[in-house]
């Protein structure tokens, strides 16, 4: 391995230049060591929602907004939503 070092004015190594082939080899090795991300479970069978189900969902959302604006429903903060993910 032919590494080249960059030395500061006091003679200390401050950086290293690595040949690209060596760098790519190290990246491949690191990728192999990373734990595999679990694949999301997806149902084998896609069941589309009906028009009525979609409209019902929109109606519920509109009602929630009305209740929240009237102060009768407490909405989640962005941090609360983010923590659920």
The radius of gyration computed from the alpha-carbon positions, rounded to a whole number of angstroms, is: 28 Å
Q: On the 0-100 scale, what is the average pLDDT?
A: 86
Number of strands: 2
| Beta fraction | 5-15%
What ranges have pLDDT less than 50 throughout 5 or more consecutive residues? none
| Oligomeric state | single chain
The profile of the biggest β sheet is: 2 strands, antiparallel
Shape: elongated
The helix/strand class is mainly alpha
What's the SSE pattern?
Answer: EEHHH
Distance between the termini: 44 Å
Number of helices: 3
Widest beta sheet: strand line-up: 1-2
- Helical residues, percent: 40-55%
Can you lay out the helices and strands and say which pair or pack?
Layout: E1 4-7, E2 13-17, H1 20-33, H2 51-69, H3 78-84
Antiparallel strand pairs: 1-2
Structure notes:
The chain is mainly α. The chain has a domain at 4-33. It has three helices and two strands, in the order ββααα. A hairpin with a 5-residue loop joins strand 1 and strand 2 (13-17). The chain is elongated, with a radius of gyration of 28 Å.
């Amino acid at each position: 391995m032919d590494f080249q070092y960059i030395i500061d004015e006091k003679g200390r190594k401050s950086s290293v230049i690595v040949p690209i082939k060596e760098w790519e080899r190290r990246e491949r090795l690191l990728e192999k060591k990373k734990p595999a991300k679990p694949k999301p479970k997806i149902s084998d069978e896609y069941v589309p929602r009906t028009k009525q189900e979609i409209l019902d969902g929109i109606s519920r959302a509109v009602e929630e907004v009305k209740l929240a604006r009237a102060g009768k429903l407490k909405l989640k903060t962005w941090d609360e939503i983010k923590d659920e993910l």
